[in-house]
Amino acid sequence: MVQRTAQINAAIDGGSNIPTPDLSIEVDDLEEALWVMKEARV
Predict the structure, then answer these.
(1) Which of 6, 22, 27, 28 could form a cystine bridge with 33, CB 3.0-4.6 A?
(2) What is this structure's pTM?
(3) In this structure, is residue 27 part of a structural domain?
(4) Are 33 and 42 in contact (CB under 8 A)?
């Protein structure tokens, strides 16, 4: 199995009161990550 890494970030604000998402998840290959999640039925 290939080792995959993901980066998960949480932020309160973006500075200067710029709205930010509650959670962001970064992956190297979005299509592959979506496929893996669908296969795992997550």
Answers:
(1) 27
(2) 0.48
(3) yes
(4) no
